[in-house]
């Protein structure tokens, strides 16, 4: 039995490797109650599960107010930089260029977060142009929500954007979200080297994750939980018990995302 699985059965936090959660959130959300939505609550859950680091976006930023939400994300990271990196959320209706100008060189942010479904704006729209220019110039990865069949962030839209901007790293959040979406996401990633599959969601299994790794490689698949939308324990368990070889599992759980966050070191 591998060390990760052994820790689960012993009900102990794993300490075998550095796990990086590539898709998490912080702060209250307007549509459901989160008992402890602050930094402390996040850290307690991460510690219980043996997750070393999380890349977070504020619920306020993705839903209602990007400017104030990004400020909240920056404050959380400032309080615990060893545990968190921020996603700079860009709402296409709320001054995308201004938010990038304000926070783009702030080392508390390691990626950009887009949520076309919540913002009612297509991933392929011109209002995202400052995002792609910034990401192309700096190497900053962009996490976008994806969902099979969505009018705003379906996989063909990811394909189109990746074709337009081949130098940009695009994390396909939820990897399409449904079984049909997983197949489409794999096909896009096979065509577009800059597309990385992020695996959080309600419908995937360890077998789905293993298929993604087999089809596109462990260096193109990253673990994310979507916590607190989805239970961190379940999201983590799907990878731990996916049957992946130890080296591939380590890459998915942290190695690949750690590499994608290293672009910051080149900005000076």
UniProtKB/TrEMBL annotation:
One Pfam assignment: Amidohydro_2
One BP annotation, GO: secondary metabolic process
Keywords on record: Lyase
Molecular functions (GO terms): carboxy-lyase activity; hydrolase activity
UniProt-listed CDD domains: metallo-dependent_hydrolases
Protein name: Amidohydrolase-related domain-containing protein
GO cellular component terms attached to this protein's record: cytoplasm
Taxonomy, superkingdom: Bacteria
Domain named Amidohydrolase-related: residues: 20-261
């Amino acid at each position: 039995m591998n060390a990760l699985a052994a820790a689960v059965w012993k009900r102990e936090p794993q300490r075998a490797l550095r796990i990086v959660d590539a898709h998490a959130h912080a702060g209250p959300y307007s549509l459901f109650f989160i008992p402890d939505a602050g930094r402390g609550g996040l850290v307690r859950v991460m510690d219980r599960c043996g997750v070393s680091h999380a890349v977070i976006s504020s619920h306020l930023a993705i839903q209602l107010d990007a400017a104030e939400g990004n400020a909240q994300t920056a404050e959380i990271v400032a309080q615990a930089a060893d545990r968190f990196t921020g996603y700079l959320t860009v709402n296409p209706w709320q001054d995308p260029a201004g938010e990038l100008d304000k926070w783009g060189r702030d080392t508390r942010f390691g990626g950009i977060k887009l949520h076309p479904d919540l913002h009612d704006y297509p991933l392929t729209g011109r209002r995202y142009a400052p995002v792609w220019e910034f990401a192309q110039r700096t190497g900053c990865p962009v996490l976008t929500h994806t969902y099979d069949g969505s009018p705003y962030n379906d996989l063909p839209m990811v394909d189109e954007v990746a074709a337009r901007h081949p130098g940009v790293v695009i994390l396909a959040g939820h990897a399409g979200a449904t079984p049909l979406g997983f197949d489409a996401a794999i096909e896009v990633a096979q065509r577009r080297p800059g597309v990385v599959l992020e695996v959080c969601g309600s419908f995937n299994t360890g077998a789905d994750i293993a298929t993604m790794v087999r089809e596109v490689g462990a260096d193109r698949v990253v673990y994310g939980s979507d916590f607190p939308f989805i239970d961190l324990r379940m999201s983590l368990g799907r990878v731990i018990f996916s049957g992946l070889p130890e080296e591939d599992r380590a890459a998915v759980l942290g190695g690949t995302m750690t590499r994608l966050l290293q672009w910051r070191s080149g900005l000076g």
